[in-house]
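User: Design a sequence. Structure:
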């Protein structure tokens, strides 16, 4: 075990495994730790696969990554955002009612900064649905490059 494995507590991750009655997997834990290390970063499956090569010594198939990501989304550990072209991006859930922006021209995705008052109002307005346990907002606006 290396120092990286001791730096971040995995309480939400472990609660997810217990709730879903899933066995521990080193590959699954490595994928989740990548999300913890790149906290406010959107990752596609291909970018996650590349990062996994750096962190995890064994090869992990793309199908395995998708299966673990589906578990993380079901446990509300990771959010799934799709752009207008239906390309999927994943980001760690670290706050209630996060706000994201997608540029309609270049499809760039980012995290929008909101104040505490706005965050509280969003949490009151948005209720979790059966598909998305963590409510979130997606704004479609031009990014700085395209405006």
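Assistant: Done.
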């Amino acid at each position: 075990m290396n120092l990286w494995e001791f730096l971040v507590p995995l309480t939400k991750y472990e609660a997810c495994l217990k709730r879903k009655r899933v066995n521990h997997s080193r590959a699954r834990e490595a994928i989740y730790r990548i999300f913890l290390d790149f906290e406010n970063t959107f990752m596609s499956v291909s970018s996650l696969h590349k990062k996994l090569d750096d962190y995890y010594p064994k090869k992990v198939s793309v199908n395995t990554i998708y299966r673990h990501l589906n578990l993380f989304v079901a446990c509300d550990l990771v959010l799934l955002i799709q752009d207008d072209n239906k390309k999927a991006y994943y980001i760690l859930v670290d706050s209630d009612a996060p706000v994201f922006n997608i540029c309609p021209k270049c499809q760039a995705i980012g995290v929008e900064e909101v104040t505490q008052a706005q965050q509280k109002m969003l949490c009151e307005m948005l209720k979790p649905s059966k598909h998305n346990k963590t409510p979130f907002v997606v704004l479609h606006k031009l990014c700085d490059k395209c405006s």
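The radius of gyration is 16 Å. Residues 1-7 have pLDDT under 50 and may be disordered.
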